[in-house]
Design a protein that fits this description.
Number of strands: 3
Distance between the termini: 93 Å
Helix content: 40-55%
Strand order of the largest sheet: 1-3-2
Radius of gyration: 26 Å
Order of helices and strands: HHEHHEEH
């Protein structure tokens, strides 16, 4: 390696140490995984904690995992993929809407028609 090439390599190394975005350009093929905590999940998914837990148990929602003994997180990419899947299913009319309740069968305040 010539002195000029060595100097260019040293300058590139120095620049990458000063600017973290240049370091990321070397790892473009590697995917950076982002996790979200419960409060962030609630902002994205308007479901209760119980509903999310039950859906996880049935395998209908991405599973949570523990970073530490007290920190529970979800993979953001999995959650976004789940949202996209639900959107496609909704557009394809795969979901059947629940029927309206029969108000005549109510025990309190039945409706007379």
């Amino acid at each position: 390696m010539t002195q000029r090439q060595q100097k260019q390599a040293n300058e590139a190394t120095y620049r990458s140490q000063q600017d973290p975005l240049l370091v990321l350009s070397h790892f473009e093929t590697r995917r950076i995984r982002r996790t979200i905590r419960r409060a962030q999940l609630r902002e994205i998914i308007p479901l209760s904690d119980t509903t999310i837990y039950e859906m996880e148990q049935r395998g209908e929602f991405p599973k949570r995992f523990y970073l530490t003994s007290r920190c529970v997180v979800w993979d953001l990419a999995e959650v976004e993929a789940w949202i996209d899947e639900r959107r496609r299913a909704s557009e394809a009319a795969v979901f059947q809407k629940t029927p309206s309740p029969d108000v005549r069968k109510r025990k309190k305040r039945p409706v007379r028609i």
